[in-house]
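User: Can you predict the 3D structure for this chain?
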Amino acid sequence: MSENLFTEQKTPYPDGKGRYGDFGGRFVPETLFVALEELEQVFRSAREDKEFQKTFQSYARDYIGRPTPLYFAQRLTEYLGGAQIYFKREDLAHTGAHKINNALGQCLLTKRMGKTRVIAETGAGQHGVATASAAALLGLECCIYMGTEDMERQRLNVFRMRLLGAQVVGVDAGSKTLKDAINEALRDWSLNVKNTHYVLGTVHGPHPFPWICREFQKIIGIEARQQILEHAGKLPNLLVACVGGGSNSIGLFYEFLNDKDIEMVGVEAGGKAIAPGMHAARFAGGSFGMLHGAQSYVLQDEFGQIGTTHSISAGLDYASVGPEHAWLYSSGRVKYTYAMDDEALNAFQLCARLEGIIPALESSHAIAYVLKEAPRRPQDHIILVNLSGRGDKDVEHASKFIKLDT
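Assistant: Here is the predicted structure, written as structure tokens:
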């Protein structure tokens, strides 16, 4: 792992005001503004501190299990008959998803700030499990907010969080999903900011959260670049990742942003249809707006009221997207598309049967795009997909929609 993990920058963003072009920023009550300034100062100090880097990299190797493998999906490649398909196996990271990279990093920052309690929000449960695990490791009190709709979809992860010693608080307001869980976590933080750090789980929210999360997740792309050169002797032609808030995708994309010949595609949740309340594809159905302290693309009505969302995947079911993604979309550097619920379920089954890997429903959206794109490309092209999480958590939920031959 590079000694310059946190200091090597590929773009000038965020700028001094925490903005990515027209997007980002810090729009919060005064109480949280002070806490965010403290967090930014502590992170700036930590990223220059060799001892902090050494500690993080030690946990990354011995606790998370980094580097995660790069895997050639041979049977899927042969089945599709086009480009070679590689998986970056973040599903093999400790706790089963990339979320642990950021959760552990922010829990280390919590200790550095002298705080004793962490809170977090979660949709699919993977960020909650990761935060609960890191809190247990470092001896921090932990509270996780989760929409009751998501708690029902992800009952296994709710049990895992409680087993790890975390308090799980159900949020029964609004759509009972991730947006509402974030609202409650922000209220808790406002009341308990002196002893509590909010471990925000994705590249969204007020500055410096999108920046900090990206810095802890960009190890995915750093490893992938080195590994594909070792496996294939050249860089990939196309990178693909699913996009909810956007942490796993920015983690993969960031290292390659200045390689102009490499295409990048982020895949959002198309849900049941691109119609109000039936999807979570912000670039297909959203517009410029603000949610949870940052400006970005948002699903909203003409009065700025946040729209309801739908996805079969709890981790993609969010009304906005990280501001750096909004900038990458506006600049044209990254293409964003969407996969429908039924396409993701088909990819979920096909990957299981051809590769013996059950991907998370979130990752299945990225694979669904690859199923359409790989056959169109020549056999010497390489598609590198970030397998952001494993599908154990989704099996019970998916079984409601999949009928298997007996």
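The longest strand covers residues 263-271. Residues 339 and 369 are 7 Å apart (CA to CA).
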